Every structure is written in C-alpha cells, then in structure tokens.
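Sample entry (238 residues):
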Amino acid sequence: MTRFDLHLHSALSACAENSLSPRRIVRRARQAGVSLLALTDHNASGNVPPAIEAGRQVGVEVVPGLELTTREEVHVLVFFDALEPLVDWQAVVDAALPALENRPAVFGYQVLYDAADEIIGVDDRLRQVGVSLGLEAITEAVHARGGAVIPAHVLRPRHSLVSQLGFIDPSASYDALELGRRDWCRRGCRLGERLEGFPVLTGSDTHCLEDVGATWLEIDAAVHTISGLLEAVRRMAA
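Predicted structure, serialized as tokens:
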C-alpha cells in the first residue's frame, strides 16, 4: 500500500509560504502516512535534492519533479525516476525562461533550503512566468529523457488545458491528467478512472505547511518511483 501526493510546493515557489522547507514537508507528510511525494515548484527544482535527503531520514520517497508553465501558460507537472535527468531538464527550463529578475514585493521570495532546515539562499530568477517551449515540444523532450508529463488541474479556469487551449486532446501523449482537489471531489472521482482516455489523479497543490498531508491518494501496491506508480495506476484504469 502506498499513500502519495504528487503536487506540493516548497518555499522555492514564490506563491508558497517561506516556512515550507523540504524537511518540514517530508516530516509532516510522514506523520500523515504519506510515503511518496513530489516537490513541484514553479519552473524550479532547487529544493528537490534536500527533500530527497530529508525524505530518506524519515522513510519518505521524494519524486524528482517540478511544475512547468508552458508557452501556452498551461501548468504541467514533470517527473523523473532519478535526480540526474531532472538536473538536465532544469537546464533546459532555465534556458527557456525570460532573463528577468524576481520581484519579491510582487511575487514573493523563492527560498532555497538544505536538508537540515537551514536557508542557504534565495533564487533571484523570475520563475512565475511561462517558458518559451510549447506543450507538445515539452512532452516529447521529457519523454525522451525517460520522464512523465501530467497536465495539472486540467479543469481549472486558469493555467489549465481547458482554460488555455479550450479542450483536452485525447490523442496527446500525456501520462495522466491531474484534477484539482475541488473538481476531484465534485465529480466523485476514484483512482482508476479516466478522463478523455487518460488516467486521472489529484494532488494537494499545497502552498502552506498546514495543508501538507491533508490530501493524498492511496494505491494497493508498493511503489517507489513515478514510473512504478503510473504503471500501477494504468493497470487500475485498464
């Protein structure tokens, strides 16, 4: 049995609380019985390595990932089984971001932590914006690196497939779709269901510490990687 949440923000996301250190996140998740989670900061992954280290200390697997904003302003969750391809992908993302500085007074600080809860820096790059890469190109490039692509909160009125493109393309090569928690509950969804042919998941989209561990899904399988989890979900949704 694995309890998981694939959509959490740390203090590296300007829109999240500065108290959301990787160590606090994984420890609070562990208290809630979550054993697999992903930090998905906006166009950034600098807090993933300390989260992986902090997770090992308490028995929580941390999936390397981030939440990417595409050229179309669609939010997409990107995941890998290992840290190395995420580091490679982060270089691609950085090259595709506009060369602008963050404005903390407007967007908030982007705080970097180590695994011991110490602040080690602030990311000054503006990351609350879209990159110059389109959704289709991103999906192909991530898959070429062995990663997974899950469009986020696909029915929301902002930054979603439906809001930005007007539809969900059933011929696309997404690995799954994420519904926002409100849409998930409103539709009475269960793990194993599909939308436009894609398996559907939900996540907490946590931006504050008190919400960590409040939302999760559970699957009757022991999984430790994103590929293992998605394979188990696909079997349920067959």
